[in-house]
Write a structure and sequence with these properties.
The protein is mostly beta strands. The protein has 4 helices and 17 strands. The strands form 3 sheets. Strands 9, 11, 12, 14, 15, 16 and 17 form a 7-stranded antiparallel beta sheet that branches. It has a 6-stranded antiparallel beta sheet with strand order 5-6-3-10-13-8. A hairpin with a 5-residue loop joins strand 1 and strand 2 (17-22).
């Protein structure tokens, strides 16, 4: 199925949002809960499967939903369709600070592999599945899971990255990265997990026990602020007690 041709505009510098402009009859698919607003005339429906195949049967949809659950995503995709007689707009954003990265899949030589939670929305016709890393060690020790989302198609796809986005082009080189900093990479990149270093470095270096190793030929997208790192820092600095008595939890008493 050929993807719908959608227009878009990205708003903001750090807390970004993408606004999709739909012609009459056009559809964009998105993760559940990603929508910010939509104009009158756009209808939405949660469906099993990504809608990439018009003749997709019930069993195929159930299998696709089961794979998405295995990857830690919702079993349903939300389809937003313009039922009006002229152009209408719908906007999406991710639940934590970062950048929205537009990717024209027609310019890629093959599918795009991305970490779970990176996918935001895409033109109808985009196939969204899962892919396993080649080495099981990446799954058991990678921190972000060995199941990656696999995006295929010839239309626009939008992924979300925390903080600042860095694009790296590998021409046979090897890149070692904190596992949470990987957003997406093209199929020509080999992904594996290796020890971070000696025992002293692993326990006291603060970089964790394992690093992701990316090598081969293709493009890698990295993020400067993984949500897992942000959440860990917030939890580490959260007060353990407070607010149970007068004078605590922000109340100031001069008595």
């Amino acid at each position: 199925m050929q993807c719908h041709e959608i227009d878009y505009k990205i708003y903001g510098a750090d807390l970004q949002m993408v606004e999709i402009e739909l012609d009459p009859g056009e559809t964009v698919i998105a993760e559940a809960g990603a929508m910010n607003y939509m104009e009158d005339g756009i209808t939405f429906e949660a469906r099993l499967g990504d809608g990439s195949s018009a003749d997709e049967g019930v069993l195929s949809k159930l299998w696709g939903a089961a794979k998405r659950k295995l990857a830690g995503e919702s079993a349903f995709m939300t389809h937003f369709t313009n039922e009006a007689a002229d152009k209408r707009r719908v906007a999406f954003s991710a639940p934590y600070p970062g950048k929205v990265v537009p990717i024209d899949m027609a310019k890629l030589d093959g599918p795009l592999l991305c970490q779970k939670d990176a996918f935001l929305c895409a033109a109808l016709g985009t196939r969204i599945g899962i892919a396993f890393t080649k080495r099981l060690g990446a799954g058991f020790f990678g921190g972000e899971g060995f199941i990656l989302e696999r995006l295929e198609g010839d239309g626009m796809v939008f992924v979300h990255a925390g903080g600042t986005v860095v694009k790296k082009r590998l021409e046979g080189q090897t890149l070692r990265v904190d596992t949470g900093c990987i957003v997406a990479f093209t199929e020509g990149i080999d992904y594996s997990i290796e020890w971070a270093g000696g025992l002293k470095s692993m326990f006291f270096g603060g970089e964790g026990f394992f690093l992701a190793t990316l090598s081969g030929y293709g493009t890698v997208l990295l993020q400067s602020l993984p949500f897992s790192r942000l959440a860990d820092r917030i939890l580490a600095n959260a007060p353990t007690t407070g607010g149970s008595r007068a004078g605590e939890g922000g109340r100031i008493s001069f008595d």
